[in-house]
């Protein structure tokens, strides 16, 4: 938009001149005398803060008036406001005659100074129109002349002041009328605070009316602004005044437009003031004049914001201009030709703007295109053709015009924030066949077109022959003349300036860069990053032509870094970027980028550039760099021509063993590329594997075979970290992969054992030369040390030359990557599997054996548990062993570990008890060591978990810890189980008497108190059985009274006797043992029952221990019998039987003893039923009286009628008082069932024996 | 008098990973040299195709269910890119040169470089299309509706489906899942199909 004359494209809005505000620069000397119409008044300009505010307000309005955005209904007015002092000069309406010309005979008809009729005008005699005219209306002739005045508040001079005002206004009006301009005069009286205080409304009104009348102004032309509270109110008042004035102004322009139309309709060609005498004598024809009138009415319509009318008039003017009668007949060499083109452009731009204002975006594009097409047609037909730089310059300008216009008009819906790329067509064109371009695209596209045409312009400019490029003064006149004909210089410089022979001409590249950067901003704002990148590339190319390499680099670096295009495999694009960038990097000495790009460009994906060396060693040739750079690139910045993969031979390995692995490097370099010799390769792992470094050994035989794949076995040497000593590298080179297994053992031998060094690495040496298209596979035997998962994470390729050193990092840890195993001779890998770079290392299988020396037998409670453990080293090497023993159970008894010189004892503990770190020292290969664990007897049946864990490492391989574990489950059970029966017996001793004084004794002696209380005899029958799995020897059986209630006493009176060797107790067989017990109270007075706690003790030993004669311990198992209550106070009836032999055989004496331990006198009735089974003597029915603390015995003699059977004496003992039958308790030789007492009648012999016994 | 009508300047197939799968370039009529030459060089066409990805991405938020994106954008007053996206994310782009071909107003037929080679069946369709094209030239602007490109995409899609039916064509190789890049389509048949489509299309052709 820059090239168009000032004012020719302005948004035309009514102009208002405001005079009388203080800001005016002091009285400018009026412009050339007589040239204009001077409006002036002598009244002083206003001052004060209102005036200041108004001034800034007008500036604001004026600024708004300059905007190109559409005037909507919401805007009440859009004005240009010019503030002046008390004087203002209007341009003169008539041109003056030039001085040089001879006086004419008749009075000349004078025309406007801007008219082609006036000799003084630039258009004289045959120019069409120029921007001067528009500028005159927009900037010099106001539609309204506003005078600001104030009413004096001093009543003394009020009349005088008002009269002065009146005369000043009258003078101005007269001048205006005289000048012929239709400019309206408007007076605004500004009230001030003083006036408000002094003037009443009526007086003020009267005075205003007086002024109005005195000046003959109509009521709409005089305003009074009463003093306002705040600026915002003043603004509001001013806004409403302007809204009123705006209508007046529109009216003014309507009059002008009407005038223009009237002149057009006259249809006559006005004659110039003087006939032209110089140049062509041609004057404007009727169509020319019509064009002028149409153009004028269009401009006036624009002033009035009547868009439709403006467009109509403009199009009319345009058609006339490009029609047969105007532009067609102007010769192309004439300056008028270019003026006409300029006018066509201006009209088109104004039309475009009108279309955009109306929202007719597609029509606007169509208008834009049709103008271009028509002009190109014209230029082709009548002008200098379109195949020259001038045309391209205009094309680019024309595109820029559209871009600028879209921005200035602020087309709705197309801003960057809307993310719209193009607008849909307006309703009027909906459904029509539209060119895609007719949908209005955002400015980025327009700027790009402009840049494209600039490029074409440069190409054409560079084709200008040298003869035409010289300065005009240095070339012959004929040449100058022909240049004028041949080159289109419409709005662009002539050839000698466009592309001079010497010196700088137009900087096309810079113009393009500016354009492209504008475009790029637009595309980026709408997230069209790929186009933005494309533009960046174009920019960079232009910058390259300028030689500003740093800018090129800055432009392309982001593209290179975010891998745009490359990551998506747009190879041709990325290649282009890379080459441009490499050149820039080389020029700026950025060695790292140069090398990275060279590395990348070696990939055969890219097309080969002719005569390029493709040799990394020569990368930095010609690149100036101060020091030998160390460059690190990774595969996420620059892709590689070497593809790598890493595969373990198997999915799983074991610590301590080795695992075969292959590192495969494939060079995908162009065939023409030089072989690359890496200096080293480092493979890094995640997990418990040490990094592997392969170093190039030039002395080694190279793999010269032409096969596409070569597999090399590389011997690895383990270096432990911190080990300064270079361990001697015994490298082997083996071409045959088949020999791999042989070497495995050897490799292992080489592995040095160093303990506690975790950081180390494996190194190998081999030939690392990669020819293009060649795959080099390095097969390695990796010693596995620690269990866990290991995965190859990345490969670092190091390349060194004299000029630089490069580290290229490649990631291997792509999940799911399928890798395979290469064998010599085959190009494709075998056994492809995903995640081949991951290895699960199992812990090393321990070959140390842990065993119980004897098989585990059953252990019983109350016996010590000896365990003997044997360690058998079946490893190939001697081992250094540490032992941990851990026992888990409820209560762990004390235990002792005994291993030769190492002994440990651990006390009783709850739940867990352990011995850790028991160093057993070295155990030689295939020798053994024995240790024993002694657990003390467990008091009760329980279970133990014993874990014996041997941590060891081999002498040869200190770094690999090995663990062997022996778990033992120990279940301890009771050897014996028993049940018990406590049966009452008749105590033979007589009961003590309550009244026995002899037995009284002094308690204070402190001697052992002899028991004097009641005594009872009991018999405890124990039935016990062995639960052992084998025969046991029971040495002794005891009954222990563990507790007796105080005041009572209990003692075992007899117990079974066993032989010294004991008796053999077979498993699962019941045995019986009887114990006699006597319980007695200390005193008779004690009435409480006595509780006794008993325990059954079995002393036993194992039979086999005797056989070995080793350990003859006797184990004591104590079983609690339970608590019994004895010596109660209830009366009881005990029956005892006595078989007598001295009398007649078969006579049985039955004693019924009734005990009354209570303190009551009790009476019992005894009834003996006669029976068929026996005869008896004794009272059949009797009553027994019992004193407290006494017992009595009734005796019956029975004569059983049968032998060897039980007889049932029908004896009933009844408490007379309570009428309660007492149970008769049997004693020895008797039993009881639910019907009563049963007495055993032995056979005669038996009875005899018994009687004797 | 001769008038310019639209022709296909370039057909592109873009893979799921935004990688180029196929690019066919067609010559346009160059009035100054009176010859058929491609309007841009292959690199520029690559750039043009890649630039459409942005528009696809931008539009996919408000995407149409049918996958037909219509006009993606006009590159300038001559070239315009139309797009179509398959369900599997393969994008097909047709770059139309709005002045790529020339019809004689007298109706001597389409001067296309491949018009004769397309065979008898297409020859009839091309002459019919030429008539359609002429009538469109007669109307205002000789523009182009989005629907007129649809046959191109239909034909491209069916060609692509035929390609997929080939058991030796592995789609994952051309757009690895979750990966980057991918190889180009090397099928000669597919290339021939594209060539046929590009050469046979003019506005008004409904079946390719």
Automatic annotation (TrEMBL), chain A:
- Sequence ranges assigned to domain Gryzun putative trafficking through Golgi in this UniProt record: 631-1242
Q: Where are the transmembrane segments?
A: none
Composition-biased stretches, type Basic and acidic residues, lie in 723-747
Q: For the Trafficking protein particle complex subunit domain, which residue ranges apply?
A: 336-603
Which InterPro entries is this protein grouped with? Gryzun (IPR012880), TPC11 (IPR021773)
Q: Which PANTHER family match?
A: FOIE GRAS, TRAFFICKING PROTEIN PARTICLE COMPLEX SUBUNIT 11
Designated name of the protein: Trafficking protein particle complex subunit 11
From TrEMBL, chain B:
**CC terms in the record's Gene Ontology section:** cytoplasm
Superkingdom of origin: Eukaryota
Q: Which residues form a coiled coil?
A: none
Q: Name one GO biological process term.
A: endoplasmic reticulum to Golgi vesicle-mediated transport
Q: Which SUPFAM superfamilies match?
A: SNARE-like
Q: Which InterPro entries match?
A: Longin-like_dom_sf (IPR011012), Sedlin (IPR006722)
Name recorded for this polypeptide? Longin-like protein
Task: Give a single Pfam family match.
Answer: Sedlin_N
